Amino acid sequence: MRGKVTWVRDVMFVGEAGSGNAVVMEGGRSNNGVRPMEMILLGVGGCAAYDVVSILQKARQNIISCHCELDGARPDTGPSPFERIDMEFVVRGCGLKESHVARAVRLSAEKYCSASIMLRNAGVEIVHRYRVEEA
């Protein structure tokens, strides 16, 4: 996996992934891009949500939507790495079995989500929750 981050101006940068996709990042002054720590938080949510959806689809669950609400706690003084991340998956579908959703979230947390496992191994407390909504 490769990437490149290029300074544009002031505190704005463009990150280009090896896949060819790009994202604007910035340091927080002008709010013209995603902050780097926000990227980490979103990356964890995206990685885990991908796992949950994939596992539920393989289990032939009739999933209509899924999103992951994230809340990252950091100290007020720098450097300020994440100390805790709360993740709540909201899964909506027709006749979803709660046991399947619980299993998907657990498998993502314990086995599949490289991003959350990496952060957990670095000492970040990660809490996973889920909510099932009938469509």
Question: Would you spell out the secondary-structure blueprint of this structure?
Answer:
Layout lengths: L2 E7 L2 E6 L4 E5 L9 H23 L3 E12 L10 E11 L3 H15 L1 H8 L3 E10 L1
Parallel strand pairs: 5-6
Antiparallel strand pairs: 1-2, 2-3, 4-5
Q: Keywords, please?
A:
135 residues; alpha+beta; N-terminal domain of TfIIb; GMP Synthetase, Chain A, domain 3; three-stranded mixed sheet; 3 helices; 6 strands; globular; OsmC family protein; OsmC/Ohrsf
CATH superfamily of the largest domain: K homology (KH) domain
- CATH topology of the largest domain: the name is GMP Synthetase, Chain A, domain 3
Oligomer: single chain
Write down the domain tally: 2
Biggest β-sheet: strands ordered side by side in the sheet: 1-2-3
* Helix-strand string: EEEHEEHHE
Question: Nutshell version of this structure?
Answer:
The chain has 135 residues and is an alpha+beta fold. It contains three helices and six strands. 34% of the residues lie in helices and 38% in strands.
Tell me about this structure.
- It is a single chain.
- By secondary structure, the chain is α+β, with helices and mostly antiparallel strands.
- It folds into two domains: 1-34, N-terminal domain of TfIIb (Single Sheet), CATH 2.20.25; 36-134, 2-Layer Sandwich (GMP Synthetase, Chain A, domain 3), CATH 3.30.300.20.
- Helix content is 34%, strand content 38%.
- The protein is built from three helices and six strands; from the N terminus they run βββαββααβ.
- It has helices at residues 36-58, 98-112, 114-121, and strands spanning 3-9, 12-17, 22-26, 62-73, 84-94, 125-134.
- A three-stranded antiparallel beta sheet has the order 1-2-3, with no helix packed on it. It has a three-stranded mixed beta sheet with strand order 4-5-6.
- Strand 1 and strand 2 form a beta hairpin.
- It is globular.
- The N and C termini lie far apart (38 Å).
- The mean pLDDT is 96.
